[in-house]
Specification:
single chain; globular; mainly alpha; 5 helices; 142 residues
């Protein structure tokens, strides 16, 4: 799989995790963001970053294996401290799971900041939405 295909596949995984967790927890991220502001997002992002550092330094999980948050296996560079690469930690989370969660929190923060987005990004989002709607219409005619 080349990098472009990998990026697209990872975005699909991130979206799938977002949908699943949103179904389980509701929009708790957005609700908390509206109540407390960006500090709530920064706190979750910092928690994930700290988790990432802990996983790396402990050598727990450096080559992803099947885990509850992933649908595919992906490898990551090993830590020099790793004596058992590929191990999923006691919570069932790997380094890659944590990275994907971190990416999701960043995207969710952008969603909450949508009223403050620069005009050029708003236009790009509208263009993507139009393309998605066109794709959906084409799918119905096939």
């Amino acid at each position: 799989m080349n990098n472009l295909e990998m990026h697209k596949a990872l975005c699909k995984i991130i979206h799938s995790v977002y949908v699943r967790k949103n179904a389980a927890y509701g929009n708790s991220f957005g609700d908390t963001f509206r109540t407390l502001g960006i500090i709530s997002a920064l706190t979750r992002i910092t928690d994930k970053y700290n988790r990432l550092v802990t996983l790396y330094l402990s050598g727990q999980s450096h080559n992803a294996t099947e885990s509850p948050n992933m649908t595919e296996s992906h490898s990551v560079t090993e830590s020099p401290n790793s004596d058992n690469p590929g191990k999923v930690d006691d919570l069932g989370e790997s380094l890659v799971d944590t990275l994907l969660d971190l990416a999701n929190y960043c995207l969710m923060t952008v969603i909450e900041l949508q009223d403050e987005l620069p005009d050029n990004l708003r236009e790009q989002l509208k263009d993507v939405q139009c393309v998605a709607e066109e794709d959906k219409a084409l799918a119905y005619t096939d």
